[in-house]
């Protein structure tokens, strides 16, 4: 978010809140005696939904601002790996040796 916030002139927190609300939607939360909009939490996303969210943000930043964001490959690999069933993870690990290093131990 810091690369994108620098390009847009917002703080990192403001950019995070804007992107979360734009891509995840929002809910109203009580703050003191007032209701205020808050972004829906990331905690409800499964790995594939999270990977899709990252890709959507990446595409949006590129098309609207011309900013190329950096998503480490392990984030994408982790999302795909976590979406597999335990059985499929074991099969890929044993038969093909395809388990990522962090999943082998």
Keywords:
105 residues, mainly alpha, 62% helix, flat
**Poorly predicted regions:** none
Distance between the termini: 32 Å
| Largest sheet, spatial ordering of strands | 1-2
Give the overall silhouette. Answer: flat
Number of helical elements: 6
Description:
The protein has 105 residues and is mainly alpha-helical. Helix content is 62%, strand content 11%. The protein has six helices and two strands, in the order ααββαααα. The protein has a two-stranded antiparallel sheet. α1 packs across α2 and α3 runs antiparallel to α4. The longest helix has 19 residues. The radius of gyration is 18 Å and the shape is flat. The protein starts with a helix and ends with a helix. The model has no long low-confidence stretch (mean pLDDT 78).
Per-chain topology:
Elements: H1 2-8, H2 12-24, E1 26-31, E2 34-39, H3 47-65, H4 73-83, H5 86-96, H6 101-104
Summary, kept brief:
With 105 residues, the protein is mainly α. The chain has helices at 2-8, 12-24, 47-65, 73-83, 86-96, 101-104, and strands at 26-31, 34-39.
């Amino acid at each position: 978010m810091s690369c994108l916030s620098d390009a847009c002139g917002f703080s990192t927190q403001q950019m995070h809140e804007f992107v979360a609300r734009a891509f995840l939607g929002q809910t109203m939360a009580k703050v003191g005696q007032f209701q205020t909009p808050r972004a829906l939490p990331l905690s409800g996303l499964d790995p594939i939904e999270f990977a899709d969210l990252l890709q959507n943000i990446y595409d949006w930043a590129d098309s609207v601002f011309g900013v190329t964001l950096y998503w480490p490959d392990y984030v994408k690999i982790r999302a795909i790996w976590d979406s597999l069933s335990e059985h499929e993870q074991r099969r890929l690990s044993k038969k093909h040796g395809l388990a990522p290093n962090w999943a082998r131990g």
